[in-house]
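pls design
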C-alpha cells in the first residue's frame, strides 16, 4: 500500500494568539521553466490522486476525441464550479449542443457549493441533483464528447469505455508518468493516479505549451470565474496573476502553471483545504511570482468570536 504521508513534511502552521495551534504536512514541488526542479519538500514522486486538479487533462482528452468547445464552455468543462446560475446555464448549453439534457448526467447528485445558490436552489423546491454538483461541467463535456465520437453515453463512466481509455492515455502522456492505479472519483468518473511532479509538468504544458493543452489552459486563465466561482481561491489566483492556470482538487491538492513555463503542485496530507491558498501562494513566489500579487488570496485568517486572531502561514517561500 502506498502511503502518501510517509515522507510528508510541515508545509503550513496555524497560528492562534501567537501560538502554533496545529501543523499541516504534505508535499510540494516547484518546476523551473526548463522543467528542472527548482524547489521541493516531501516526496514529489510519490503516487497520489490528483482529484479535480486532473480535470484540465481530462478536458484535453475530450478535445482530442472531438469535443467542440472553447472559451467559457471549455473552462467550465475543467471546473469544480459553484453551481451559480450562470455556471448551470453553460452546463445546460453544452448538453443541449449534443442533443442531451440534465437527465443524461451520471455524476453524483449534490447541492451547489455556493451557499447563496444552494439556498435559492432549495427555496425553489429542488433537491440534490447531478446538474448542481460541482463536476457537472466535466460530465457534460464527457457526454458531448461521446456524441461527437459516436460512442455510447449510458456507460461513459466505465473505465473500459473508449472515452476513459483515451483519457487514461492522455493523463500518462501529459504528466510523463504512466498511470499505475485507477479508482472512482467523488463524482463517479474514473480517477487516474499520477505524481506531484507529473501534475506540475502537465500544468506547465497547459500554461505555455502548444496545441490542445495550451488551448485548454488559455480558456481557464481567460475565464477564471467559470473554473470555480465567486469568492473561490482558484478563481482569485488566476485573476491576480496574468496567464496563470490553476486548479484545486479535493483532499488538499493544488496545481498551477505559469506563462514562463514554470509550474507548482502540492498535496496536503490530511486532506484539508484550509492551508492550500497559503501554500500555493508560497510556492508561486518561489516560482518567481511577485508576493504582492497573491498576498490577498493567500490570507487565511484564524477566527476567534468572528474576528481574526491569527492566520495560516506557509513554512517556506521566497
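designed seq:
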Amino acid at each position: 500500500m502506498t502511503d502518501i504521508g510517509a515522507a510528508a513534511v510541515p508545509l503550513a502552521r496555524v497560528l492562534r494568539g501567537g501560538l502554533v495551534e496545529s501543523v499541516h504536512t504534505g508535499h510540494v514541488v516547484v518546476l523551473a521553466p526548463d522543467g528542472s526542479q527548482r524547489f521541493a519538500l516531501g516526496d514529489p514522486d510519490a503516487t497520489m490522486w490528483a482529484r479535480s486538479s486532473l480535470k484540465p487533462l481530462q478536458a484535453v482528452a475530450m478535445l482530442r476525441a472531438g469535443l467542440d468547445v472553447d472559451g467559457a464552455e471549455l473552462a467550465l468543462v475543467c471546473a469544480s464550479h459553484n453551481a451559480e446560475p450562470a455556471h448551470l446555464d453553460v452546463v445546460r448549453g453544452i448538453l443541449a449542443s449534443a442533443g442531451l439534457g440534465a437527465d443524461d448526467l451520471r455524476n453524483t447528485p449534490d447541492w451547489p457549493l455556493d451557499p447563496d445558490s444552494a439556498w435559492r436552489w432549495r427555496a425553489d423546491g429542488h433537491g440534490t441533483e447531478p446538474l448542481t454538483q460541482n463536476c457537472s461541467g466535466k460530465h457534460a463535456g464527457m457526454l458531448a464528447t461521446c456524441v461527437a465520437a459516436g460512442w455510447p453515453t449510458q456507460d461513459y463512466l466505465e473505465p473500459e469505455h473508449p472515452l476513459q481509455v483515451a483519457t487514461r492515455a492522455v493523463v500518462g502522456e501529459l504528466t510523463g508518468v504512466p498511470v499505475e492505479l485507477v479508482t472512482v472519483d467523488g463524482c463517479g468518473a474514473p480517477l487516474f493516479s499520477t505524481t506531484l511532479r507529473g501534475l506540475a509538468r502537465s500544468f506547465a504544458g497547459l500554461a505555455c505549451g502548444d496545441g490542445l493543452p495550451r488551448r485548454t489552459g488559455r480558456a481557464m486563465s481567460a475565464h477564471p470565474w467559470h473554473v470555480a466561482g465567486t469568492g473561490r481561491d482558484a478563481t482569485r489566483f488566476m485573476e491576480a496573476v496574468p496567464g496563470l492556470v490553476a486548479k484545486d482538487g479535493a483532499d488538499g491538492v493544488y496545481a498551477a502553471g505559469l506563462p514562463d513555463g514554470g509550474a507548482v503542485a502540492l498535496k496536503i496530507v490530511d486532506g484539508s483545504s484550509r492551508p492550500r491558498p497559503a501554500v500555493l501562494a508560497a510556492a508561486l513566489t518561489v516560482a518567481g511570482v511577485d508576493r504582492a500579487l497573491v498576498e490577498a488570496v493567500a490570507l487565511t485568517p484564524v477566527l476567534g468570536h468572528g474576528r481574526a486572531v491569527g492566520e495560516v502561514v506557509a513554512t517556506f517561500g521566497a
